[in-house]
Amino acid sequence: MRFLHTSDWHLGRSLHRVSMLGAQSAFLDHVVDRARALEVDAVLVAGDVYDRAVPPLAAVELFDRALHRLADAGVPTVMISGNHDSARRLGVAAGLIERAGIHLRTDPAGCAAPVVLTDEHGDIALYGLPYLEPALVKDEFGVDRARHETVLGAAMDRVRADLAARPPGTRSVVLAHAFVTGGAASDSERDITVGGVAAVSPAVFDGVDYVALGHLHGCQTLTERVRYSGSPIAYSFSEAAHRKTMWLIDLGAGGSVTAERIDCPVPRPLARLTGRLDELLDDPAHAAHEESFVEATLTDPVRPAEPMARLAARFPHALSLVFAPERPPEDDTVSYAGKLRGRTRQQIAEDFVAHVRGAGPDDAESAVLSAAFDAVRAADAEAAG
């Protein structure tokens, strides 16, 4: 049986305030087209369908259109809620939607109730484990400690018990949304450490033929049977080097797994450039990034004037500026109090400007600082009198 494993759509999310709705729409069209062209038997979506619990209307409309297209194509879809989703909202009308072949798994209590599909080799049980917030589900699973590995382990115990009661030779797939040990994170994932240690061992999923993971945004293989698909679109510059893909999984007789990466459309590449502003503007080596989304780290010792406007003249899609000035190392042997000793308030303020900007204030700026200190002194004297 053939599956298309994807996750972390984050519908409604932007990149540095630039809307990604167009790119998300193109990706969803791509999912449907690939599912048809590759004769996929089911699409697996391992959580974080939306970017937030109450998604914008445009994101809901995208989701609705994708479900209709998958249903019209006759491609069953199994989908779980992630830590960004509202499980209750995503699961509304799940019973009705299931009649169209769209199987939403958002209730932790139903984790051992699989979607069962059949091919020439027999049954395949697909178990959807929605994101399990330890503090909220520990009573459901009867565990004492509110930790990710504890609750996920209890959920998998239920899965294995159900699987053991099925006909011999039944193959199994689990969808889960978690931070599994061995995975590499990026800047885009929301921290899930609240409520217990975040990482869980891949061994939690022992006994299952394939585990379709969501949460981490890089496509990763933890074991041959445990994989992250990653997000289909880069949602931070930490993902600039990612190759955005989905997994095409063939589950053969006896549970053998064959995996192939299927590329996702790239709306606009991301580039991280570092150097002095004039170098970034003049270096011909950067010509390939002129149409990219750009994050520029400026190393000028003194912060240049209007850096973003000047950068945008060459890189019109520049979105982020980081300042990392090249400066001589400071003397760490001198204490902060020692640096202030014998300095006037005016001198301390001028030192601060030099520290932040790389150059001290000019005459006009020094005059503004002096006037400000004079005004403070006058106000203090008036209050004291």
UniProtKB/TrEMBL annotation:
Protein name, UniProt field: Nuclease SbcCD subunit D
Residues in Calcineurin-like phosphoesterase domain copies: 1-218
Biological process according to GO: DNA recombination; DNA replication
Similarity annotation: Belongs to the SbcD family.
GO terms for MF: 3'-5' exonuclease activity; endonuclease activity
Organism phylogeny: Bacteria, Bacillati, Actinomycetota, Actinomycetes, Kitasatosporales
InterPro entries: Calcineurin-like_PHP, DNA_Repair-Maintenance_Comp, Metallo-depent_PP-like, Mre11_N, SbcD, SbcD_C
Record keyword Signal present: no
Domain Nuclease SbcCD subunit D C-terminal, first and last residues per copy: 267-355
UniProt organism field: Streptomyces qinzhouensis
